[in-house]
TrEMBL record:
NHL repeat positions: 101-142, 149-193, 201-239
Natural source organism: Pseudobacter ginsenosidimutans
PROSITE patterns reported in the protein's UniProt record: NHL
Matching SUPFAM superfamilies: NHL repeat
Highest classification ranks of the organism: Bacteria, Pseudomonadati, Bacteroidota, Chitinophagia, Chitinophagales
Identification of the protein by name: Peptidylamidoglycolate lyase
InterPro entries: 6-blade_b-propeller_TolB-like, NHL_repeat
Keywords: Glycoprotein, Lyase, Membrane, Repeat, Signal, Transmembrane, Transmembrane helix
Gene3D superfamilies in UniProt: TolB, C-terminal domain
Top-rank lineage group of the source organism: Bacteria
GO cellular component: extracellular region
Amino acid sequence: MRWLKTIFYLFVPLTMVIGVSYLLQEVKNNDAVRTDPGYKQAKWPALPAAVTPGKPTGIGIDTNQNIVVFHRAGKEWPLLGSIPKDIIKDNTILIIHNKTGELLSSWGSGIFIMPHGLATDNKNNIWVTDIGLHQVFKFTHDGQLLLKLGEAGIPGKDSLHFNKPTDIAIANDGSFFVSDGYGNSRIMKFSPEGKFLFEWGSKGMQQGAFDIPHGLCILNNQLYVADRENARIQVFDLNGKFIRELSSVSDADICALTADTLKNKLYTVDDLNFMKLKHRGSDIIVSDTIGIALNRFGRSNGTQDQPCWFHDIAIDKEQNIFVGDILKNQILKFERITKP
């Protein structure tokens, strides 16, 4: 996808015209996604009719192995123009039972403008980012605010501000990383108490630079960064030192990734699109820690006629996969049916 950057800047006016017809195409919900023989798509979740996970941008697993979803309640981020500043009135955090798909609890109304990333920690806290507020939040599992970073509605690039932060990753010692993000193309590290420690990165294609660092995870005390527009994963130690680049996982935009710490594997979702106007589908890729794909399914198995956009991914201890599809406003579960 890196070679598309040049084309993008040359042909933006043309694509804005022809893209209108693409945007008018209907996307149907509940189309089954083809999987490899090792997985099957579950009939899940079983949410109340009044609850629709509109634009589920963030997804995680809590300490009880239940699913935590951060969604926009259907609010759109315009392709052109600024993010609408109205506060979302619906509950934006959903806690869903892993097995039954039942809604266990929900909260988060009247707080957020444009939800984005979500992470959970080993104390069952829930961390989220809001790209409209330019803030990072830490909550208890039931929604009590523990920490808030950034100035509401004010973007910036110093140690006290973010510019559309995308994701969070929490280390074992409680320190945490923020990918910042759409506006700043940097990674920031904070102490467990939220004190800024250091940062690295700028916009670019070289090692240690990013073009929208979009997702984070930690595996073996190394930070994996989904460098979305550069179609690669970059790996750093927890002090920000570059270790390696994984550029063979996908040729499409790398949207998000999560770690299987028991099996030492990465689970990644991508997005194949035409200049962000036409989304051709997503793959779920299971790889080793040096980027060799061990399993791949989704778009590559023939989902071009069933477009989707998997924005985030989580796995449970049984290696079942959960993804948030922001094109069809749905959460999907792929059950593992063969031994890993």
